[in-house]
Structures are given as structure tokens and as C-alpha cells.
Amino acid sequence: MRFAFIQSHAQRWHITTMCRVLEVSRAGYYAWRARPLCARGQTNQRLTEQIKAIQEKVEYRYGSPRVRAELTARGFSVGKHRVARLMREAGVLATIPKRFHLTTDSAHEEPIAPNLLQRQFDVADHAIDQTWVADITYIPTGERWLFLAVLLDLASRRVVGWALSTRLTQELTLSALRMALLHRGARGVVHHSDRGVQYASRAYQQLLASAGCTPSMSRVGDCWDNAVAESFFATITKELLRDRTFATRDAASRALVEFIEIWYNRQRRHSALGYRTPVEYEAQRLQTT
User: Fold this and answer.
1) CB under 8 Å to 11, separation ≥6 — which residues?
2) Quick one: which of 60, 77, 204, 231 has the most CB atoms within 10 Å?
3) Cβ(149)–Cβ(259) under 8 Å?
4) 201-258 pLDDT, tens per residue?
5) If DSSP codes are grouped into helix, strand and coil, which group holds residue 150?
6) Beta bridge mates, 139
7) Distance CA 23, CA 186 (A)
8) In this structure, what are the phi and psi dihedrals at residue 139, rounded to the nearest 5 degrees?
């Protein structure tokens, strides 16, 4: 295993240095490398090449479960523990950065809706455009914050509405909701959010009412009541912001548009969807209804 590690990292570190640190001889390493690989070793080599190609394609955003799902889609049958081991040996693990979080302002006198969702998050418990969850986060840039509001469909985890702004205002959430209503043409949706004033405001509630939507709100200070939205923001942090600092808000905006509409909705394999993409999962569900 140590020789395999040296071989997979030979372009990063000097072989002599790795042999010294791992307490093996250079001669032993070269003798090992000269031996023909057994059948399993050859398979591991092919799998490692595929794993590296996958991680390069997805910009090292995948952990071993999604890498395994991608390998399966490419016709490889391999166990989860083997994939995790090969990823460790090849040094192509996903990177996990510091997480950012925003707590909206719930210190207001606007009416509060009851919690209708009650943490019922399973995709099988919801029809498409039956339940949306909404939340706000912020993206750090060299020009201070860029605020992001999103709505996700619980049945497919697809982002159905989103908006960006340099200020945390009521218009931010209204813009995201208008996008969702325009693109989905949905009526009678249960709309779940926290108790922030952006969601409890008269203008927002009037827009929900005009579309026949039913408001639902989390309990005070309980992020778990809106865990799907929280999970989406964690995905942004892990897969977009992990090793990147945006110099400007415009640069962050362009990256977020690509991340949401191209990567997350149409390319990223989601564990809650059987490792299908949200767009793919919606299409399959609609075909069977």
C-alpha cells in the first residue's frame, strides 16, 4: 500500500522523500513497480484513472458515494469501501472548507405561520411542486457580501427560484419567489421558510396568497426545521467556496448562476434522489405519474 501511495503521488513529491518518510527503500519501490500487476491490481489502476478523471471533471466536489455512483453509471461494478480506499491512495478526496451561515431577523411583529412541514423531508412524501422550502445565505467577496435567496422543491431538491443582491432586503426574497412562480406555473404550493421578516412581510405573504400558496414557518431558532435548505447552502460552501475567494460580487454572481443552473440542477448526483440529478429525477417521476 505504501508503494502504491508513492506511485500515485510521484508527480507531487520526490520519490526519495516519500520513501524516507514511509520508511521503505527506493530499491524496493522500483522493484515493486517493475513487477507485472495482478488482475486486481490492474483493475485498481483502471478504477483509479477513472476516479481521477471524475474528480477533475467535477472539480473535486465529490465524496466516495457520488464517485461510486458515477463509476456505476460508466459501467464499473465496485464497492463503496474500495472506492474510498482508492480515493485516499490517489489523494483525490473532496475538500471541505469553513462554512458560512446567515440567520435572518425574526425580531418583528409580522404574523407567523404554523409549521406545516414538521420536518417531513423525504422526497417520496412530496409531489413535484407540492412543497417548496426557502432560505437566505451570504457569499463573501472582496467587495463584502453577496446575498442569495433560494427556493427548492422538496420532491426533487431542484432549485426552482433564486435571486442575488448586494443588500439583504425584502426585494431579494420576492425576486426568488417570482422566478419560481414564473418558471413552474405552480399553484397551491406549501411554502416553508424560517420566521425572518423577509418571509413574514406583508408583500411576501400577499404574493404567496395571490398564487394560492400556503405559508409554513420553522420554530424559533431551529435550523433543523429547514434542513433541506441548510443542506443546499452547505453544498455551496463545500463545492463552490471550498478553496475560492471571489474578488468581486460580479465574479461571485457568475459562478453562482453556473453552479445552480448547470451544476446543481442538471449535473450533480444527489444522494436523496438515488444519485440522479434533480432535472433527471423530475423527468423520471413525471413519466410515471
Assistant:
1) none
2) 204
3) no
4) 999 999 999 999 999 999 876 678 899 999 999 999 988 987 788 999 999 999 999 9
5) strand
6) 146
7) 64
8) -115, 125
Cα–Cα distance, 90 to 93 (Å, whole number): 8
Q: How far is CA 175 from CA 48, 74, 159, 202, 204, in A?
A: 44, 39, 14, 15, 10
- Per the CB < 8 A criterion, the answer to whether 147 and 172 are in contact is yes
| Among 48, 30, 37, residue whose Cα is nearest residue 84 | 48
Q: Which residues pair with 148 in a beta bridge?
A: 137, 164
In the numeric block, which cell numbers belong to residue 32? 515493486
131: left (phi over 0), alpha (psi -120 to 50) or beta: beta
Of the given ranges (140-149, 156-165, 239-248, 261-270), which has the lowest mean pLDDT? 239-248
User: CA–CA separation, 137 vs 236, rounded Å?
Assistant: 10
β-sheet bridge partners, residue 153:
132
| Alpha helices for the chain (secondary structure H) | 2-8, 15-22, 26-34, 39-57, 64-73, 80-90, 170-184, 197-200, 202-210, 227-239, 249-257, 265-266, 278-287
